[in-house]
Write a structure and sequence with these properties.
Blueprint lengths: L1 H18 L8 H19 L1 E2 L12 E6 L7 H6 L9 E6 L6 H4 L3 E4 L7 H8 L5 E4 L11 E6 L2 E6 L1 H6 L3 E2 L1 H4 L3 E2 L12
Parallel strand pairs: 2-3, 2-4, 4-5, 5-6, 7-9
Antiparallel strand pairs: 1-8, 6-7
Length: 195
């Protein structure tokens, strides 16, 4: 289990070293934070299983949607470029808020930017029963029903997982990944943890 943690940490450090000098349009602290988060998203894709019905073809790409302001710039695109997981490449899409959620439902991974904090509850509710790995970095995203949430602790990127939300989405998260996460429960509107 420590090997998996070390592997993820080393992967992120390699991404930081290889791409750090090329981060565009963002100050250096933000660029390294989102470089690490992009590396995590790629690794999450390796450690999450979607139902086979999530993909039209055996080689359909894993679609990563970024809803709202894009904090990654070109970093996420570079990290997943030419990478494949189980024969699937990646496609990264930038999305804007819309009440019909059509574009969001075409994603396998949906990163909800902190700029969308006022829409989090609507997005989470619309995605709840769909096989979409929702990831956020706004405080409380996983407790509000998102599946994964990035946090910063002592200037290090960590992540939380809402296992119940993953079950609702019919996603299987590797136990190796769960050992590295802080497991959280969803909090209901009245402040109680969901059962």
């Amino acid at each position: 289990m420590r090997k998996v943690g070390s592997l993820i940490a080393i992967t992120c450090l390699l991404f930081a070293t290889a791409l750090g000098s090329r981060a565009e349009g963002v100050d250096s602290s933000d660029s390294s934070e989102y470089l690490i988060k992009a590396g995590f998203i790629y690794n999450f894709a390796k450690l999450v299983e979607w139902p086979t019905s999530s993909f039209a073809q055996p080689d359909s790409p894993i679609v990563i949607g970024i809803l709202g302001e894009d904090p990654f710039g070109a970093t996420l695109d570079r990290i997943v470029a030419d990478k494949k997981i189980n024969g699937r490449g990646f496609a990264v899409k930038r999305l804007k808020w819309s009440k019909d959620f059509k574009d969001l439902k075409d994603c396998n991974i949906l990163f909800v930017s902190a700029s969308e904090k006022e829409h989090i509850d609507s997005v989470v509710d619309a995605m709840k029963w769909l096989p979409i790995l929702t990831i956020g970095d706004a405080p409380g995203f996983a407790r509000r029903g998102g599946i994964m949430n990035f946090t910063l602790e002592d200037n290090k990127v960590r992540f939380e997982v809402n296992v119940e939300a993953a079950k609702h989405a019919d996603l299987t998260i590797s136990s190796r990944l769960l050992t590295l996460a802080r497991i959280v429960q969803q909090v209901t509107a009245d402040g109680r943890k969901s059962e």
